[in-house]
Amino acid sequence: GRLIDLVKKKGTNLNRVTYLVFDEADRMFDMGFEPQVRSIADHVRPDRQCLLFSATFKKKVERLGL
Predict the structure, then answer these.
(1) How many other CB atoms are found less than 10 A from the CB of residue 6?
(2) Which of 47, 53, 57, 59 is 20 to 30 A from residue 31's alpha carbon, by CA?
(3) Residue 17 sits in which domain range?
(4) Cα 19 from Cα 30, distance rounded (Å)
(5) Number of folded domains in the chain?
(6) Residues 6-40: tens digit of each pLDDT
C-alpha cells in the first residue's frame, strides 16, 4: 500500500528497478492483494527480473513471473 501511494504521488519512480522480489506471493494473492502486486509490477521496467518465493505456487502466481 505505501509503495503504491508513493508512486501515485510521484514520491518515487520504479522505472529503474531491475529486480522485483515477492516473498510469499501466493499468500498475498490469497489475502486479496493481487491488484496491488500487479500494480507494482506494472510500474517496473518490462525487462525486469521477477523473483517469487513461496513453498507452493498456484498458476496465477506463476503467470506473474512472466
Answers:
(1) 13
(2) 47
(3) 2-64
(4) 23
(5) 1
(6) 999 999 999 999 999 988 877 888 899 889 988 99
